[in-house]
Amino acid sequence: MKKTSLILLIALTLLSCNETVKLNFETQHIEKSSDAIFNINYPKAIGTKAVSENINQHIEHLIANLMNMSETPDNNISVSEAISEFDNEFKAFKNDFQDSSQRWEVKIDGQVEYESPEILCISLQSYVDTGGAHGNGGITFLNFDPETGKLLKHNDLISDFTQFTKEAEKAFNEQTKPKDDDELMEDFFFGEGFQLPANIGFTKNGLVLLYNNYEIASYAQGITKIIMPYSEIKNLLKIEP
């Protein structure tokens, strides 16, 4: 009897250790227009608790800080708190400049960009307008380990940085053209050598190197996307897309 119980206990332990991570996504929608205007949509992970909580925490932390008016990120602020603080800042602005017709606005659209057994990529497209000639917009990629919910950095994705950078620079030169005829390729990086972007994301078409406004060149250049087919760089990545 004791032997049977021991075997059963071991079997249950192995089963729990090998439990398959289950992960799905549902769209979270926040819309307000009483004072400032908010239109926020993003994917919320549901399923295996520890994994989904890790993923959601990083997504919501990024969204909250896109609305953060201070110069430093806030690691503890929630999305609802960020909305309230942004709204209060706008009310204070209107109180100081009562003749202004300016309406502050936040637009954020997120989606699951790519999903495989080894990588989960979420993209967030944002636009925040607090006055001025134009608002501040951009796209951010968040890459996760779908088994743990860990947010992955470039070091977790790329195995050979030297060779990867060479291939990335080659793709950049092939796919990017200056909008101004007088602008040289060197002008993209403000007189410095080629640099990898802050945002690297996974899509069905390949790995995307994404440079947001002001990251390279002038605002007029807009967002620059470079696509690197997986077949050409698979030996330079630590994961298999």
How would you summarize what this structure contains?
This protein is an alpha+beta fold. Helices cover 31% and strands 28% of the residues.
Q: Which strand order spans the largest sheet, edge to edge or round the barrel?
A: 1-2-3-4-5
| Biggest sheet architecture | 5 strands, mixed
CATH architecture of the largest domain: 2-Layer Sandwich
**Continuous helix count:** 6
Describe this structure in words.
The protein folds into two domains: 23-152, Fervidobacterium nodosum Rt17-B1 like (Heat Shock Protein 90); 155-236, Actin, Chain A, domain 4 (Alpha-Beta Complex). The protein is 31% helix and 28% strand. It contains six helices and eight strands, in the order αββααβββααβββα. The chain has helices at 2-17, 49-66, 79-96, 154-157, 161-175, 230-233; strands at residues 23-32, 37-47, 105-115, 120-129, 136-144, 199-203, 206-211, 224-228. The strands form two sheets. A five-stranded mixed β-sheet has the order 1-2-3-4-5, covered by helices on one side. The termini are far apart. The model is unreliable at 6-18 (pLDDT under 50).
Characteristics of this structure?
alpha+beta, 3-stranded antiparallel sheet, Actin, Chain A, domain 4, 28% strand, Heat Shock Protein 90, 241 residues, 8 strands, 2 domains
Which helices and strands occur, and which strands form pairs?
Layout lengths: L1 H16 L5 E10 L4 E11 L1 H18 L12 H18 L8 E11 L4 E10 L6 E9 L9 H4 L3 H15 L23 E5 L2 E6 L12 E5 L1 H4 L8
Parallel strand pairs: 2-3
Antiparallel strand pairs: 1-2, 3-4, 4-5, 6-7, 7-8
Helix pairs in contact: 2-3
